[in-house]
Design goal:
The structure is a single chain. With 427 residues, the protein is α/β, with parallel strands linked by helices. It contains 14 helices and twelve strands. The strands form three sheets. The chain has a five-stranded mixed sheet. A five-stranded mixed sheet has the order 10-9-8-11-12, with helices on both faces. The protein has a two-stranded antiparallel sheet with strand order 6-7. A hairpin with a 2-residue loop joins strand 1 and strand 2. The longest helix has 18 residues. It is elongated.
Length: 427
Amino acid sequence: MNLPAERRPLLRLERQRLEAELYRVLPSLLIEPVSTQKVASALKAVAADGFLVEFQEFRTYSTYQQGKAQWGDARYMALLLKPDGSIASVALGEAAVIDAAVSAALLETVRNELDPAPLWAQVSRLVLGPLQSHLVSGQQLFISPDGELHRVPFAALPSLRDPQRRLGDDLRLSVLTSGRDLLRLQKPAGAGGPSVLMANPRYDAIGRSTAPTPSERAGGERRGLQQRTGELTSGTILKPLPATEEEARLLLVPITTLARAMRRLGLNRLRNLDPKPPVQRYKWEQPGDMIHVDIKQLARLQRVGHRITGDPRKGSSPGAGYEKVHVAVDDATPLSYVEVLPDEKGPTTVGFLSRAVAWFNGQGIECQRVLSDNGSAYKSHGWQSRPGHGIEGEEDQALHPKDQRQDRAFWLPADFVYIKTLLEEWA
């Protein structure tokens, strides 16, 4: 279309006026010029140890023939921007080779018949291999793909440093539309709108790029049809995902209702999801390998107790004091020796141990070692020395109450039975 020279300034002013009005109504459409240094400053502020890699698909100019420009085959290149503002350009090769490798890896992944890892490793060698020397020291990588590289799951590719690891595990990885997005990352995130849940897509549905015209509706023509993902790959059928629809409906439940349900199930805290640590238990195999000692305090009775009278007010014996039940239990059998003694002082516990060892010896059990808790009687000088006993001494470690309870419950059934009998039959 040829325009007179005198009309062009007027149209240029009209275009500027319309653009200004459009940007006033929709300011997000305004694209301001951004310098490389400004993007580098944003990269340094967001991740001082990071790199920006922008992939670009391009064609080189070949010649001009018959009034038309001739272009060469499509190729890929990568532009690397460092936080200091320096730029490196790396040629990746022909786009046809890289695009074919990406399509083969995606096809094998969808088929799920063979391991697609070797194919993705080939994609990694083609796309990331030439960049390896530039990314040795980086800890975060911002990637802006182009062309078929938009379909590459970069986080799942083998790492450049360790092929046994994923790139997403080796580096902090972010995929951007362009380097301009780094300026947006500097700004604090605004308040989000209502959530949108998408579930159970219909891969076999036919969509339209535009609404049908009256003639199309009358003649039954179908123009402007969009091809769905399920039809892009020959022989590939993507099945419905009804379970995702059920999950989406559950997520639509109000948060307060969901919180009550999680609390009722005991899942309202992250620590409740962790596996419980194993209970520490042990058992000595041979009689006498370990003798456990413990003391139970029982009240003295000067009159008939409330268990017989049924009246707690008349069954008490104030000022009567206490008697101590000393118990020794063999870990392996468990055979027990019990004495009721007036106190739990060091000399008393040592004397009890002497009689218990003698009693076990009389039963054919030779005591090798003894285990006690950290009570004051078992920490006294007399107990620590135990002259003439010739057996090793150990103390309970300060375990978690759950572990200690489970551990003690493993070897104290006989102890419990004796003490329970004394409590119930005490008169």
